[in-house]
Amino acid sequence: MKTNGALENDHVCLQKEDDCKALADKIIRSLDGSLSHEEEMEVIEQIQKYPCCLEKMNIARAYKAFICHKVQKLQVPETLIDSIKNRIDTSNL
Amino acid sequence: MNKDSQSKENKDKIFNEEFMPLIDALYTFAYHLTYNEEDANDLVQETYLKAYRFIGSYVSGTNAKAWLFKILKNAFINEYRKKSKKPSRVDYEEISGYHDSEDHSKVEFLDLRQEIYQSMLGDEVTFALNTLPVDFRLVVLLCDIEGFTYEEIAKITDIPIGTVRSRLHRARNMLKESLSHYANKLGYK
């Protein structure tokens, strides 16, 4: 269900609302690479049971990919690399 | 080869093989913190000179990226943030206790897969990122751009993991809100 570009946060999941929130939190931590292997397995198991949570995971994953892809990555100027190397070579570091 | 030149050789090896390959990531981080090429240059240069000077405290083969990012973050805080007349500050009262009463607001699950967002240019997203207070921008850059774990971010930023998570949560919502407003301005309801 989409309104104004956002998914409604009404609880439509089959599990208890608190469990759903806890799983949403774990999904974020999982995507951020901050869960243990055991916790990852639990998340996967729960997500398979509840499609609503799978959708949340897909959206959260899309967010990370979007930001990572869109935020400008820069290449350091060659002159800066030369300057750093030169400073190291000519100083007593 | 005497002891000193051997030592320099080792230092150069670590520097060239472990530190230099990370310089673009450091530069990107510095640029998004300062939004000024000259300041970013200075920050990266200072970071690499410090890294070389204190290379003895780095253990080869460990987390060079986190080590360098921490040096850069500290340099930024020390040299640049204090220069600002009105440094952007996190409203700590506002975010304290977030994890005890976590409420996933609507914006939490804003779907950025929609066409309007996908068609946004990097500049627009970068601008939205730039509007975040620096403490929030830091965690987004470290987590979503550089892929550091909460534990690594906590070490780099010298804040507890719980604070990393609460800042990240708020930062992401602020960013999504900003992008959503932008989409609305373009006529997407």
Low-confidence stretches of chain A: 1-9
Q: What profile does the largest beta sheet of chain A have?
A: 2 strands, antiparallel
Number of strands of chain A: 2
What is the string of SSEs of chain A from the N terminus onward? EEHHHH
Helix percent band of chain A: 55-70%
Number of strands of chain B: 0
Please give the domain count of chain B.
2
User: Can you identify the CATH superfamily of the largest domain in chain B?
Assistant: Winged helix-like DNA-binding domain superfamily/Winged helix DNA-binding domain
Strand content of chain B: under 5%
Chain oligomer state: heterodimer
Written overview of the protein:
The complex is a heterodimer of chains A (93) and B (189). Chain A has one domain (2-90). In chain A, strand 1 and strand 2 form a beta hairpin. Chain A has 93 residues and is mostly helical. Helix content of chain A is 66%, strand content 4%. Chain A has a two-stranded antiparallel ribbon with strand order 1-2. By secondary structure, chain B is mainly α. Chain B folds into two domains: 3-83, Orthogonal Bundle (Rna Polymerase Sigma Factor, Chain: A); 92-185, Orthogonal Bundle (Arc Repressor Mutant, subunit A). Chain B is built from ten helices and no strands. Chain B has helices spanning 3-19, 23-34, 37-53, 64-80, 92-95, 115-118, 122-130, 134-145, 150-157, 161-185. In chain B, helix 2 crosses helix 3 (37-53) and helix 3 (37-53) crosses helix 4. The longest helix of chain B has 25 residues, at 161-185. Chain B is elongated. The termini of chain B are far apart. Residues 1-6 and 89-107 of chain B have low confidence and may be disordered. The chains are: A mainly alpha (93), B mainly alpha (189). At the A-B interface, strand 2, helix 1, helix 3 and helix 4 of A face helix 2, helix 3, helix 6, helix 7 and helix 8 of B.
